[in-house]
Write a structure and sequence with these properties.
Length: 574
């Protein structure tokens, strides 16, 4: 039992965390404030010349892991161009807090600071918490847990001096081979994607963070990564309306503050050859703003991506994105040149003064809503401790526990007999896993085995023979890659080893990998029990052991269709 003092410390941290989250809560959502009279917005706007107003549309890249020269170059852009905001990428939390303080001090107008934090700030920053991937969250049946996650993520952003999350991802991932969305999606069911995305965004927004649903009108059914080329979305308008756009329509109804536009060629919405949707006025203004009635911030996907620069280099893309209706132009290749191009387009009358000024005021209104009328210096005192607080750590485990999905088995075939000779095999790793360490505590007559991704066939055959001597086998299939893809990077011989091993009469197979990988392992359905665990995190490995040892009821449901054996929604409650 923990000492009373320790209990009081944890309780105090949780209490203070709740107080901070409540303090961030807004009376009105950001979208509700758009168009309202705002003296701060008007005052700041009226002090700007046209070039400075245009610069408010631009958000540039920032890092804390690229050295002093890079940091100084960003400072120079802020000072000279007076841009609207920054998008932070890789680095560390203390370094980033210090850098945000430096950048805010030299900005004429407070900077709106954003980050891609689909699974929290751990998506970009070291020594911080990563929440489960959205595919893992898609298995959870209690959406209030995802709302709570949104609140915790918002706390981290605000604690670091950031005001906007480029998340959640609300793409319907109905293409298992999608190279860029995949595990970042809540799944292939549009209703589940919408419900989970809304729970997440509401948690963040209620705690004072601007959010961004992405990638409109839907990047889930592509097999091309828009970072490298322009994907084609060849579907009919009816299909797009009823499937891809559905989560975004629901997010708009729920009051989402921002929507990010995808870089895709969509002939059904705009048949201009090789025109990314980000640069299409028919899509950005005609569909999103006019047809769907979205009033919040329209954010372009990164303008440095090959899907755009391949066909529209040298600042041409940014001008087209502006004319299309984007409010925030993200990661321009050359913001100085792009600002000049937009200034020229306005002078030529290619867009009305009223529309241009309304967009600038939307950005200023977002800054006001997020508390930037009075910029506060980010304190680095106990920053690491705050960002790794007990309440957040506990929630990551709670989310993982709620996601575990039993695809095959019953109480006896999952738990097995703790007094029989037991083998615990982890595959795809080079050292013993937490799954093995936790499970062997409950199976005293067990031995641990390791099979790496490229174990030679002779060694695999030896292991198969040795494992025949055991009464029962627990198998962990692990994807050690930073981002879990649809196909395991195992050798063909190791995959065949799995096929042979699961035919042992008493086997429990736990897949700590993308659920789509199950379809790439022929014969896995013959295992006595199968548990989908979605990703190789410590929390998921602990959760799997809890289910096996009957200390946790498995409530997760498969968020995607894997194959005919394992359809969407499958999950055996134990």
């Amino acid at each position: 039992m923990l000492p009373t003092v320790k209990y009081l410390q944890i309780a105090t941290l949780i209490f203070l965390n709740c107080i901070v989250i409540q303090a961030f809560a807004q009376k009105d959502s950001y979208v509700q404030t758009i168009g309202q009279q705002n003296h701060w917005v008007d005052s700041v706007f009226n002090k700007m010349n046209r070039r400075q107003k245009i610069a408010q549309l631009f958000f540039v890249r920032a890092h804390t892991n690229k050295g002093q020269r890079y940091e100084d170059s960003v400072a120079e852009v802020i000072r000279d161009q007076q841009i609207g905001g920054l998008v932070f990428f890789q680095g560390g939390p203390v370094r980033q807090a210090d850098l945000i303080n430096r950048y805010q001090k030299i900005a004429h107008t407070p900077l709106l600071i954003a980050m891609d934090g689909e699974w929290g700030i751990g998506m970009r920053l070291d020594s911080t918490i990563s929440y489960p991937y959205q595919m893992t969250l898609g298995a959870i049946q209690d959406n209030t847990l995802i709302y709570k996650m949104g609140q915790q993520v918002a706390y981290d952003f605000k604690r670091l001096g950031m005001q906007m999350n480029f998340g959640p991802d609300m793409d319907v991932n109905n293409n298992p081979n999608n190279p860029v969305i995949n595990y970042r999606s809540f799944g292939d069911n549009k209703y589940n994607v919408a419900e989970k995305g809304i729970a997440y965004l509401k948690g963040m927004q209620d705690a004072g963070l601007l959010t961004t649903a992405k990638h409109f009108p839907g990047h889930g059914d592509t097999n091309v990564d828009s970072h490298f080329d322009l994907p084609l979305l060849p579907f009919t308008r009816e299909r797009l309306d009823t499937l891809e756009e559905y989560p975004f329509r629901e997010a708009i109804k729920a009051g989402i503050s921002g929507i990010m536009i995808a870089h895709m060629d969509i002939p059904a919405l705009d048949n201009t050859k090789n025109l990314p949707s980000t640069l299409s006025r028919k899509i950005v203004t005609g569909v999103l703003k006019d047809s769907l009635g979205f009033k919040g911030l329209v954010v372009s996907d990164a303008m440095e991506m090959k899907a755009v620069t391949k066909y529209f280099p040298d600042g041409e893309a940014e001008v087209k994105a502006f004319l299309a209706g984007n409010d925030i132009i993200e990661l321009s290749d050359n913001s100085e040149k792009a600002i000049l191009g937009i200034r020229k387009a306005i002078r030529k009358g290619q867009i009305s003064t009223e529309e241009f000024e309304a967009r600038v005021k939307k950005i200023l209104a977002a800054k006001y809503w997020a508390g930037l009328a009075k910029v506060k210096e980010v304190s680095t005192v106990r920053l690491d401790e705050d960002l790794n607080r007990p309440a957040a750590v506990a929630l990551v485990q709670q989310l993982s526990d709620a996601a575990v999905t039993v695809l095959k088995g019953n109480t006896s075939s999952v738990q097995l007999d703790p007094f029989l000779k037991t083998a615990i095999v982890s595959i795809g790793v080079d050292e013993h896993t937490l799954f093995q360490a936790e499970l062997c505590k409950w199976y005293p007559y067990s031995r641990l085995f390791i099979v790496n991704k490229n174990t030679p066939i002779a060694r695999l055959n030896q292991l198969l023979e040795a494992l025949k001597q055991y009464d029962q086998v627990f198998i962990g299939i692990h994807d050690t890659r930073l981002r879990p893809q649809s196909k395991l990077d195992y050798s063909g011989e190791v995959k065949q080893f799995i096929t042979d091993l699961v035919q042992h009469q008493n086997t429990v197979t736990c897949v700590f990998a993308n659920p789509y990988t199950i379809a790439t392992l022929p014969g896995i359905e013959k295992s006595g029990a199968i548990i989908a665990c979605y990703q190789m995190s410590d929390e998921m490995q602990r959760a799997a052991v809890k289910v096996i040892t009957r200390r946790l009821d498995a409530t997760g449901k498969l968020p995607v269709r894997v194959n005919a054996f394992f359809p969407n929604g499958m999950g055996i409650g134990l």
